Amino acid sequence: MDAGGYSMMTPFEVLNRILKGEHMAIQQYQAYIDTLTDSPLRNHLTAILTDHKEHATRIAYYIQTNGGQAEEGAGFTGIMADWKTRLMNLRETPPIEMIERLYDGEDKGLARAVQYSEQYLDSAQKEVLDPIFADEHDHLKQLQNLREGLYDNI
Fold first, then answer.
1. Distance CA 144, CA 59 (A)
2. Residue 42 falls within a domain, yes or no?
3. How many domains does the chain have?
4. Does the structure show a pLDDT above 80 at 9?
5. Per residue in 76-109, pLDDT tens?
6. Global pTM value
7. Domain contains 2
8. How far is it, in rounded angstroms, from Cα 26 to Cα 152?
9. Of 21, 74, 133, 148, which one has the greatest count of Cβ atoms within 10 A?
């Protein structure tokens, strides 16, 4: 136990927090995708959703194979966020607003995950997350491009 008491998190707690973020992203993307008809936008979002599912699997696998216990699902907070997203959504959300919200979630989630990683993880654990963080930076670029493309079409 460090002098600060319970402020320290174990690597597994950190990885589980990051995993929870992936599950929340999955739920949010899924909620939006469910409201869209077939379109290039839906395909883009589905590709990002697929990445998040793969990230969640990769993080959970790392935790399990290194002696930790992976916490599945986004937990209560995630369920509430999902419920709120679906309520706000009900097919009324203009695509531009969807992209703004997804960008915001992706941006905040990535910043938090990177911060946890820097603060608590060793280089081997960071190595697992690096390609995931790279993908998520890419998601931000993709969402930015989608957003600009939509503004051009308004």
1. 26
2. yes
3. 1
4. yes
5. 666 666 666 666 655 677 888 889 999 999 999 9
6. 0.85
7. no
8. 28
9. 21
The two tokens of residue 7 are: 């402020």
**pLDDT at position 20:** 92
Length of the chain: 154
- Distance of alpha carbon 96 from alpha carbon 62, whole angstroms: 36
- 3-class secondary structure for the chain? CECCECCCCCHHHHHHHHHHHHHHHHHHHHHHHHHCCCCHHHHHHHHHHHHHHHHHHHHHHHHHHCCCCCCCCCHHHHHHHHHHHHHHHCCCCCHHHHHHHHHHHHHHHHHHHHHHHHHHCCHHHHHHHHHHHHHHHHHHHHHHHHHHHHHHCC
Q: Which two tokens stand for residue 132?
A: 């995931």
Domain around 19: 11-152
Question: For position 133, which CATH number holds?
Answer: 1.20.1260.10
